[in-house]
Specification:
The chain is an alpha/beta fold. Among the domains are: 295 residues, Alpha-Beta Barrel (TIM Barrel), CATH 3.20.20; 123 residues, Jelly Rolls (Sandwich), CATH 2.60.120.380; 117 residues, Sandwich (Immunoglobulin-like), CATH 2.60.40.10. Helices cover 24% and strands 25% of the residues. The chain is built from 20 helices and 38 strands. It has a 6-stranded mixed β-sheet. A hairpin with a 5-residue loop joins β37 and β38. α13 crosses α17 and α15 runs parallel beside α16. The longest helix is centred in the first third of the chain and has 18 residues. It is globular. It starts with a helix and ends with a strand.
Length: 855
């Protein structure tokens, strides 16, 4: 690990020592040694004293927002305003106190960190610490008290719009990474806020979908990471999810909050809402919600935990003690993070160390999925000495991602795109040709021309669904990324209207192209341009003169039950025709296609419609692979995509959303300056139909039954004997490793004891690198159906060529257990357990067994 990164981690540890040390007053020899309580030791005493000073009305003012991101100050007793901020990948830019509009600050930039999927792909607690340290320090410097992250909901569904914000599909992987990250954030005198508790696994009707898993599934799959955040990291903030849990919002679920979170786990921090959740005063108050942050009402006094709660208390319907507990928790956090401490840590922001940390996190999360030989050498890493002409294509080649996605947006000082990273890496020594390939089918108007924005920051069209063709009654309103629509209604016609502001890049004649099945009308600035009715989707074209730098109001009205696409040929040759880009590919020494998704696909509030790469990328990739064997397919995405060309490709890399230093990090990997060491934290299925929610017909807007039970992700694929395109835990290197000599500390484990698993890892290749040894466990004699393999531990080691190191992982009784619905508790059954070690789910190289006795 580079010395500078080590120094950053050392700094994080030193902060921990500082914040938790026994700070004593220096005493003279004749002065009695009176110990001064540390901040931690004096928290409860301070909370008691402050609580006793507050009036009922003042207490009420502390349990709901008084602005978009802050809580009321009480000057009379010296309580300051408490400030919260998104998000999990960097401190959000400042917005106005009472609206979502930007505050217009010019000094609110922050380090744009790689997304948490990248942290998960590192399989490295030190990377989690680094991410948390930067996030906490920058939040503190921006005078924030809560940072609204990290996120740990699991990637059950590849279509889920917020997968990119979270830590993969496995509960143990998420748990083992979120704990060090929380600690690193909170060492900066900032409260971390894990989210979203619990079962927020789809954006489709996210405020209304009713999650109804069985208790075993809830406990074994969807709660362990939250439990670890509470019990091991002492997290101070927890954000409830949007969805319902068995008919009531998760924020006010007695079972989730009072029975489990605050009961069994003993959570002492604050449970707060996300913005605009479906709660009510009585249930939210009685069943554990502490802080209401956003409700769609005209006044903060009308929040459910504002005047309505005050009235209920005065009427005797809700005890004052219920309110006192909420206020106590809020005060506890305030004192714990030093809001009343003149020595509170100052934080730091936009430092060189933070930028290098962002680069380190991004490189460690890159996953080399495939790397086959062409001639005598593998395609990657590309050799600068022999490569003189590179063709670069793909929608992510020069795309920035920081300002999209929703609440995770970050206003960074800069963002290095993959293309910019290549240019910085290669300088003038290599000729880089850049193209944007046009597919053979009609593509929608590119997002480059779309000036209108969804609230998540993504270029978008507004889409309205109407009851009838006359558009007399609106049914639903949403947004859509492209000027392309596919009906989900085969029996009757959809009646939709789509609107967007379109801004040409160059003045001149634009040829509009329409393919539709049904009735289609386009107006521009209120003037009818195209009226089209067709049953077979025949292409219709129309020329229109448009001026650059002028916005045009485009409106589409469509009545039909099939599909339409509106595209155009615009001046300036934004897209390159097939013959030209394929000729360039054949002539190039290497081709790099930066494809994947964007925050038009991975984004808060809406799920993806399918698992395909958008805008016919598959066609273009397949043709490039035919044209040049040394084509590197480099995908940037936060969710799984189908790869029908994977067998054909010789080099595939997965890069996630890599933050502000993504381009440098990706180039470091491509040219071998950094050896890739990432492993997939999600399964990459061959087809969407192979995934559990789709195969079991358990994805809809009404309720999620979690029919697959504990068989989430890779567990499902193993149970069903379905081979994915790339398995969970998979990731290659530019060197080779040998894992050997598995040893168990005991072959007979008793109740309450732990077992240590060790093995030797040797770098048998020619370059330094890191390997992740993964431990999977199988209960061979279970009375309930259990997965064939369950991840229970992992250890990442960095090795020079020829070097050998030992990896060590520990198993506890809890690791052996399942949730027993009969006793309503964890149960480890007597019998034989198999330990499996490998460098991916599908590459288990070592096995051993032990017996467990419940004595």
């Amino acid at each position: 690990m580079p010395a500078l990164i080590k120094s950053i981690l050392t700094f994080a540890i030193s902060l921990s020592v500082f914040s938790c040390s026994d700070n004593k007053v220096t005493q003279g020899q004749d002065t009695p040694a009176v110990k001064e309580l540390t901040r931690v030791e004096s928290v409860e005493q301070n909370v008691d004293q402050m609580l006793a000073k507050l009036t009922l009305e003042e207490k009420i003012s502390l349990v709901h927002a008084s602005g978009k991101f802050h809580i009321n100050a009480i000057d009379r007793v010296g309580i300051p305003e408490m400030w919260l901020s998104d998000g999990p990948h960097g401190v959000r830019h400042q917005i106005q106190r009472d609206s979502w509009s930007s505050a217009g600050w010019t000094d609110d930039h922050a380090t744009y960190l790689p997304h948490l999927t990248s942290v998960a792909a590192s399989w490295d607690p030190e990377i989690a610490i680094l991410h948390g340290q930067v996030l906490g320090a920058e939040a503190r410097e921006r005078k924030k008290d809560f940072i609204l992250g990290p996120g740990i909901n699991l990637a059950r569904l590849p279509l889920y719009g917020r997968n990119f914000e979270y830590m993969g599909e496995d509960p143990i992987l998420a748990a083992k990474l979120v704990v060090p990250q929380i600690k690193a954030i909170q060492q900066n005198d900032v409260a971390a806020t894990v989210k979203h508790y619990a079962l927020n696994t789809q954006e489709l009707n996210r405020t209304g979908v009713n999650a109804k898993p069985d208790e075993r599934t809830l406990r074994e799959v969807y709660l362990p990471a939250f439990e670890a955040a509470v019990k091991e990291a002492n997290v101070l903030g927890m954000m409830g999810s949007y969805n319902e849990y068995y008919g009531t919002n998760a924020n006010q679920s007695k079972h989730l909050v009072m029975d489990i979170l605050k009961g069994e786990w003993g959570y002492q921090g604050v449970l707060l809402t996300d913005w605009n959740v479906d709660i009510n005063t009585h249930d939210a108050a009685m069943y554990g919600l502490d802080l209401e942050m956003g409700t769609d009402v005209p006044s903060y006094d009308e929040y459910f935990l504002a005047q309505p709660l005050l009235k209920e208390i005065k009427a005797g319907n809700i005890p004052v003690s219920v309110l006192d507990d909420k206020v106590r928790r809020i005060l506890r956090v305030q004192y714990s993070i030093g809001m009343y401490d003149e020595n509170r840590l100052p934080g730091a922001r936009n430092t060189k160390e933070h930028q290098l940390a962002a680069r380190k996190i991004a490189t460690d999360g890159v996953v080399l999925l495939k790397n086959e030989a062409v001639g005598n050498e593998n395609v990657l890493p590309l050799a600068k000495s022999s490569i003189k002409n590179i063709l670069v294509l793909g929608p992510n080649a020069d795309k920035k991602h920081g300002t999209g996605g929703g609440s995770s947006e970050v206003k960074s000082l800069y963002e290095v795109t993959p293309l910019a990273g290549l240019k910085a890496q290669l300088g003038e020594d290599v000729n880089i040709t850049v193209m944007r390939a046009r597919s053979s089918t009609l593509a929608p108007i590119a997002s480059d021309y779309v000036a209108s924005r969804h609230w998540t920051g993504t270029p978008a069209w507004n889409i309205s669904y109407f009851k009838d063709k006359q558009r007399s009654e609106i049914i639903n309103e949403s947004w859509i990324v492209d000027s392309q629509f596919k009906s989900q209604n085969s029996e009757s016609n959809d009646h939709i209207t789509m609107k967007a502001n379109i801004k040409p890049l160059k003045s001149g004649s634009h040829t509009l192209n329409v393919s539709a099945v049904g009735d289609f009308t386009l107006t521009v600035d209120g003037t009818d341009i195209l009226t089209y009715s067709n049953a077979d989707g025949t292409l219709l074209s129309h020329d229109i003169d448009l001026n650059a730098e002028q916005n045009y109001a485009f409106e589409i009205n469509y009545d039909g039950n099939t599909s339409f696409t509106l595209g155009w040929n615009a001046p300036g040759n934004l897209l390159t025709d097939e013959a030209e880009y394929l000729a360039a590919a054949k002539a190039a020494d290497a081709v790099i296609y930066f494809g994947g998704l964007s925050h038009g696909d991975d984004r808060e509030s809406i799920d993806r419609p399918d698992m395909k790469l958008p805008n016919n990328q598959d066609e273009i990739i397949s043709k490039l692979l035919n044209a040049n064997e040394k084509t590197v397919v480099f995908l940037v995405a936060g969710s799984a995509v189908e790869m029908p060309w994977a067998e054909q490709a010789n080099a595939i890399v997965w890069g996630w959303y890599g933050g502000m230093e993504a381009g440098h990090a990706f180039s470091d990997i491509i040219f071998g300056d950094i050896n890739p060491s990432g492993k997939m934290p999600i399964t990459l299925p061959e087809k969407l139909a192979h995934t559990a929610p789709i195969a079991l017909n358990d994805y809809n807007a009404e309720e999620s039954l979690y029919t697959e039970g504990v068989f989430i992700g890779y567990r499902w694929f193993e149970q069903q004997n379905i081979k994915p395109t790339f398995a969970f835990g998979h990731g290659l290197s530019y060197t080779d490793f040998q894992v050997s000599n598995i040893k168990l500390s005991t072959k007979s484990l008793n109740s309450g004891e732990s077992l240590t698993v060790t093995a030797q890892v040797k770098n048998t290749g020619k370059v330094a690198g890191a390997e992740v040894v993964q431990l999977y466990l199988h209960d061979k004699q279970a009375s309930v159906e259990r997965p064939t393999k369950e991840l229970k531990g992992f250890d990442k080691v960095f090795l020079q060529p020829g070097e050998t190191k030992q990896v060590t992982m520990m198993l506890t009784q809890r690791d052996l257990s399942f949730w027993d619905i009969n006793t309503n508790d964890w149960l480890a059954e007597q019998g034989e357990f198999e330990v499996m070690l490998g460098n991916s789910l599908e590459n288990i190289t070592l096995r051993d067994t032990f017996n467990y006795s419940a004595k």
